[in-house]
Specification:
With about 350 residues, chain A is α/β, with parallel strands linked by helices. Chain A contains twelve helices and 13 strands. The chains are: A alpha/beta (about 350), B alpha/beta (about 325).
């Protein structure tokens, strides 16, 4: 067995142990996260179930092959991962990428998700894949520790602040490779209103309160919202019965509803979410834009909103096709991505090897 | 109140408490402006209610881009104002049913600070004349016509360079009313020769052709460039969606006319008033807008002091994006 295969097997073994039902450390972390009101139990459970199915050894091997992973390509390289914390365990892929390339993972854990990821990191420590005490919710813990690469996600405006903080802490210089992901929404094209399609759409829009960058913020459908909203609302209510929305929108969303009513913009007001048939660049949370259209409409929107667009989804006939440079993914995978998915269309392992190993 | 004379009697009568004037206009607009009438419904309000002015829902200003914000009437508008913008941008449209109201609102407040017996007003508004629907150009023309001496006028950059020789035996002060970027252009060309008794009234955004400046930076640059004390550098705050203007005299704090009320609103909950010192969106009740909508939530960022004056800090940038944001925690 090659060194790389052994390495992947070790990583996989650590993950399997972490995902064991009797992992009391993880259980405690879940309880505490729920108790402190950081995420709902249902959203954490969903994430863990997704990870159980996507983090299997064979999937790690597929990712390794797709990305051209070389054994220990980043040995002795400090890789700083700044975890965002908008979803439970978000940024786990960065942790895995850092370990798979053989780098030294250093994690700034989000205060919004401080318990879950450290349980996996500790497991990796047990397997000598991560060094002790290399993660913290306080960035200044790593002050003066020079990084060879930085992985993070956020808005364009926060990127400047992040870099400035890292520079002032003497962790990076102007040459340090930084992978900044700024995409913050996704688009879906549906072709029918079958049960499966509508359930997948509901999950893609409403899971995690729609706050993830893989969450659908624009849907292109063959129907106007007015003709579909009663049916769609039933699916949403059914989803919310099982997955109550954890985060609530600001009152400004109610203002938006009143505004739409005033201007007679077609909309569906769901108290904690708003769907409207009027398009603009998706920046607001808890808001779904509904557009009547077809593949050409989708293509135009992808081109128009490419800045900030994460993924494009559809149902069977378009899956795998390309639209304006984006591979169309299955709608059902919006909130259950494969481990090799590419945030902002960039494979993290591939980027690390190109930008850091050969830096 | 559809009758302009009756409207003027109500709007500008300082002997009637603001709350009472506001209440009447709320009732009128809720009943006769279909868009505003629909807007207040979700808030559980109806035209006959008499909410406190600060409890009246403010219509987001983009309504002037998305809809026809005007009361139901058979009358054609006297004037149409449109915000500046390229053909690809949606522009605000303000239909003015009564130019008398606009004339009274703009002249009364302007003369309060800059009476024509003390000032010659020179307007330098390059670029604005590209917009035939510019409210600022209309306002400038009206003020020029209103100066009984006939001295107030538009001036070009070249005329300003020779300003020293333009009014040699004047007894009045000169007020240079200009767009911030145009004034900066004059300074940066280096040809302007300072003159005595000059005051500056700047308007428009701080975004110049070259860079964005803060208000203090702009004031300092104008002071240095024109050789004028900052006490004599004033600001005007107005927009095509409002019939009334506000002025900051010798500083950054704006005062409102007696028919206007400004409040700072929490962007996350525009019904909530921010306490003095806290930044938020500028909310404006302009009774002059009686025939369109008097209750406006702007997209401008502002702050109020304890005396009820307010500062304009720029545009409100919504950075609370979806996705993985606010990465470096501030808690």
């Amino acid at each position: 067995m090659s060194d790389l295969r052994i390495h992947i097997e070790t990583v996989s073994k650590a993950i399997d142990e972490w995902l064991q039902p009797d992992n009391t450390d993880l259980k405690r972390a879940i309880d505490r996260t729920v108790e402190e009101g950081l995420f709902s139990f249902q959203d954490i459970k969903h994430q863990i179930l997704v990870l159980k199915s996507t983090l299997q050894k064979k999937n790690l091997e597929i990712w390794a092959e797709r990305s051209g992973l070389e054994f220990n390509s980043l040995k002795h390289s400090n890789i700083l991962c700044l975890h965002a914390g908008n979803l439970p365990l978000v940024g786990l892929q960065d942790l895995l990428a850092s370990i798979l390339v053989g780098g030294d993972y250093i994690g700034k854990i989000s205060n919004k998700d401080p318990f879950l990821l450290p349980t996996l990191i500790k497991k990796f420590v047990e397997f000598n894949l991560v060094n002790e005490d290399q993660w913290s919710t306080d960035l200044s813990t790593f002050s003066g520790n020079p990084m060879n690469a930085v992985l993070f996600a956020g808005s364009q405006s926060s990127a400047k602040e992040v870099k400035s903080s890292l520079r002032s802490l003497n962790m990076i210089d102007s040459q340090t490779p930084t992978l900044m992901r700024t995409a913050h929404f996704s688009i879906a094209l549906i072709e029918d209103n079958d049960t499966q399609t509508m359930e997948d759409l509901t999950e893609a829009v409403f899971r995690y309160g729609g706050t993830g960058c893989r969450s659908v913020a624009i849907v292109v459908a063959p129907y106007h919202l007015d003709s579909e909203k009663c049916g769609f609302t039933d699916y949403v209510e059914s989803f919310w019965l099982k997955n109550p929305q954890h985060q609530k929108p600001d009152e400004s969303l109610f203002y938006r509803y009143a505004y739409n009513k005033a201007l007679e913009i077609p909309q569906a007001w769901l108290n904690d979410f708003l769907i409207e048939e009027k398009l603009s660049h998706p920046t607001e949370k808890f808001l779904l834009y509904w557009v009547k259209g077809d593949f050409d409409t989708l293509s135009n929107l992808v081109s128009k909103y490419a800045d900030g667009l994460q993924s494009v989804y559809s149902t069977s006939s378009y899956i795998g096709e390309k639209v304006e440079g984006y591979h169309i993914e299955p709608l059902s995978q919006a909130q259950a991505p494969p481990v090799w998915w590419k945030p902002d269309q960039i494979d993290t392992i591939n980027w690390l090897q190109k930008k850091v190993a050969h830096h | 109140m559809k009758n302009p004379e009756k409207a003027i009697e109500l709007i500008f009568d300082i002997s009637i408490p603001f709350e009472e004037r506001c209440s009447k206009i709320f009732e009128f607009q809720s009943a006769f402006n279909p868009i505003y009438g629909r807007f207040i419904e979700p808030f559980g309000l109806k035209p006959t209610d008499k909410p406190d002015p600060l409890d009246i829902p403010l219509l987001p200003i983009k309504g002037f881009k998305d809809g026809r914000i005007v009361i139901e009437t058979d009358r054609e508008p006297d004037l149409i104002f449109k915000s500046s913008g390229t053909s690809n941008m949606s522009r605000s449209i303000h239909l003015i049913l009564s130019r008398q109201i606009y004339e009274k609102a703009l002249l009364e407040e302007f003369k309060k600070y800059f009476p024509f017996n003390e000032y010659i007003v020179l307007f330098h508004l390059p670029g604005y004349d590209q917009n035939p629907y510019s409210s600022l150009i209309w306002m400038a023309n009206y003020l020029i016509k209103s100066d009984p001496s006939g001295s107030s006028q538009f001036v070009t950059k070249e005329e300003l360079d020779g300003l020293k020789y333009l009014f040699q035996n004047r007894e009045k002060k000169i007020l240079l009313f200009g767009a911030a970027f145009g004034l900066m252009d004059i300074i940066e060309s280096g040809n302007f020769e300072p003159i005595e008794h000059l005051e500056i009234l700047e308007t428009g955004g701080m975004k110049t052709h070259r860079r964005e400046m803060t208000k203090p930076e702009l004031r300092k640059a104008l002071s240095d460039g024109f050789g004028v004390l900052t006490d004599n550098i004033h600001s005007e705050y107005g927009m095509c969606e409002l019939l009334s203007q506000m002025y900051a005299i010798g500083g950054e704090w704006f005062e409102t006319p007696h028919w206007v009320q400004v409040s700072i609103r929490d962007p996350k909950n525009p019904s909530r008033i921010c306490e003095p010192g806290k930044e938020g969106k500028i909310g404006i009740i302009d009774l002059g807008n009686i025939h369109s909508c008097s209750f406006i939530l702007t997209d401008d960022r502002g702050v109020m002091n304890k005396n009820g004056q307010f500062k304009v800090l720029g545009r409100w940038n919504p950075d609370d994006l979806r996705g993985c944001n606010f990465l470096i925690d501030y808690e």
